[in-house]
Amino acid sequence: MTRLELAAYLTDTYSTTGENLFARYHSFQVFRHCGNKKWFAVIMDIPKKNLGLTGENEISVVNLKCDTRLIGSFREEPGIFPGWHMNKAHWLSVAQDGTVEDEKIKFLVDMSYELTNGRG
Predict the structure, then answer these.
(1) pLDDT tens-place string over residues 65-103
(2) Topology (CATH) of 3-115
(3) CA distance 12 to 33
């Protein structure tokens, strides 16, 4: 799933649009709940080295909140990393380069949305 496909999925499924909150980082899009304004997804392009990958170019990722009981097993899968620039005990960074299947990304997005909905 490309970043454009993911952004369209987030908009269609959750009736929210990406916000560019950081003037310095034009590629960062924050998706929030309409009611409580909590973030549930952040799409961004970051240097591969920030994830421990080789190469000088950037990779598109989405940061998503994850159930702490599941986070360790997801991090063992290719294309899923500790949340870059987030609390690593609660967030994952998921590559958007085709490594992670679309259905798994959607599952993780749904989980993130539920974990940040403010009804817990």
Answers:
(1) 999 999 999 999 999 999 988 888 899 999 999 999 999
(2) Aspartate Aminotransferase, domain 1 (3.90.1150)
(3) 13
Task: Say what the pLDDT of residue 119 is.
Answer: 66
Residue 74, Cβ neighbours under 10 Å: how many?
19
What pTM was estimated for this model as a whole?
0.91
How far apart, in Å, are the Cα atoms of 75 and each of 25, 68, 69? Answer: 26, 11, 12
Q: Report the largest interatomic distance among the alpha carbons of the chain, rounded to a whole angstrom.
A: 41
Q: Give helix 3-14 / helix 102-115 axis angle, nearest 10°.
A: 50
Quote the distance between the C-alpha of residue 119 and its chain's center: 21
Under DSSP, is residue 112 helix (H, G, I), strand (E, B) or coil? helix
Domain ranges of the chain: 3-115
